[in-house]
Amino acid sequence: IFQRLFTLLEDSRHELDMKLSESTTTPTDSTTSFDDLIQARKDMKNLVSEYSQLDPLIRQHQQLLTYLLLTQQNPQQSTVIQQIAVSINSNSKRLDEIHSLVEKNKKIVEKGFEREEGRFVKGLDIALSTFQVQRQAYYGGTFVGNHVHRCLKENNILTLCNSVVETATRNDIALL
């Protein structure tokens, strides 16, 4: 019974982690799939912003270049035309880079993150460790009898429940 209740608690923590990953833009210092997801979302937002600025600029330069090529007598010798052509070329290369980076970040976002790497689920593990309880890896994360007894003590139940608030306070107070 305890394992089922704990799994429900862990599931709700994972849902909080999912919501947090959608709303936060600040990864921690560690390199987890959760932090990779947050960084990928942040990068995608910046890349889309950069793309939306570069694309119209390239179009304007292309129109200007077309106009200058049609109106200038010696377009091959015009430094303005050469500068515009170089600008179009470099900005087009940057757009290609942005496109590939967005695709890479889309894959990271689609992949999501490992359940145990979410901040709230980690907070639950930290709370368990404060009263020396560990899940048994070789039994699929279940608890041994004495660990169940420790978890069911009133102070330890409060510690487990309060760990949600502590984790939210450490990471994103607006989530409360």
Describe the overall structure.
The protein contains six helices and no strands. The protein has helices at residues 2-23, 33-71, 79-111, 119-130, 145-151, 154-171. α1 packs across α4. The chain is rod-shaped and about 90 Å long.
Class from secondary-structure proportions? mainly alpha
Shape: rod-shaped
Number of helices: 6
Low-pLDDT regions:
none
Oligomer: single chain
Give the topology string: H per helix, E per strand: HHHHHH
Global mean pLDDT = 83
Amino-to-carboxy terminus distance: 29 Å
Helix content: over 70%
Percent strand: under 5%
User: Which sheet architecture does the biggest sheet show?
Assistant: none
- The number of distinct β-strands equals 0
For the CA atoms, what is the radius of gyration?
Answer: 26 Å
Supply database-style keywords:
176 residues
In short:
The protein is mostly helical and 176 residues long. Helices cover 74% and strands 0% of the residues.
Topology:
Blueprint: H1 2-23, H2 33-71, H3 79-111, H4 119-130, H5 145-151, H6 154-171
Helix pairs in contact: 1-4, 2-3, 4-6
